[in-house]
Specification:
The protein has helices at about 5-20, 25-30, 35-50, 70-80, 80-100, 105-130, 135, 145-170, 175-185, 190-195, 200-210, 215-250, 260-275, 280-290, 305, 315-320, and strands spanning about 55-60, 60-65. About 70% of the residues lie in helices and about 5% in strands. It has a two-stranded antiparallel sheet with strand order 1-2.
Length: about 325
Amino acid sequence: MKLRPIIIYVWVVCALAVASQALLQWSDFFMLSDSDLAGLAALTVLGFISESLALTVRFGGSAGNSSITFLPLLACVIVFGPTPAVVFLGVTGLVAERGIRKKEAMRAYFNLGQYLLSTTLAGLVFLEWGGIPQVLSGADHFQLQLGPALLFGLTFLAVNHVAVSIAVAIDQRRALGTVLVKMIGSAGTNVFYDLLVLPIALAVAFLYVELQISGLLLVIMPLLFIRYSYLTNHKLVMANRDLLKALVKAIETRDPYTSGHSMRVAGLAVRIGEGLHLSKRKLGDVETAALLHDIGKIEGVYAEILAKPDKLSSTEREVI
């Protein structure tokens, strides 16, 4: 049986993720004290909560998830180092993919593999550029390492976006460049927004060093509350979108001949808008307007005229 290209790609990513673990200093993980292991466990629990509050985002025919797990991951690298960070993301990713989102095995393996590969390579960059995990520095107080932390974030996001873009390009048979530009946003805005959590991650690391686990809760819990509020609003927006589509179907019952027309117009309009590089908000407005462009058909007075099999009279044309 011939394997599909996407299946081969998934296994390649998983193999690279496993092989890359040999590049890490696993002795660093086993040197953690009991209090540090407790802190790592607390960050992992926060990772689980972050994943449970993830938003579903779509790109073409594929769907993904957006969470704030990148925040505790950054804090984990700064405080404990790359190897514990790999453990953190491995455990968090496995629970999220198979336990929380219950994704099919192949998709879950790919996501977990690219998470581990991204974290490992980014962790090596962190160490190469002078990053020293707080628990290994021997310092009594927090040591600011902005440069290595920033490079970790950039490397992680670069590997992550490229790996996912290749998967989408193979699966949807689209040009890699087009997918990658869409993934990172115009002028790299999506990457910029992700990196905005860096100061917060540094604050989390600082508070953990100074106040231990209570310091984590001091920063993370309010952020999770804000995220929960945003998730609730997002679900409301999606519910309104579903109601809109139900309205469109009601419109089309007046004119079954053009069933699906509004959905097709909306799809084409969004693709044109993407070609014009409209913002995400503008694209949403375009899609809504396209879906509703035949809203007048819902009026009962038009039902008989729309269903008429013969040529319309001048009066009926005027009504239309």
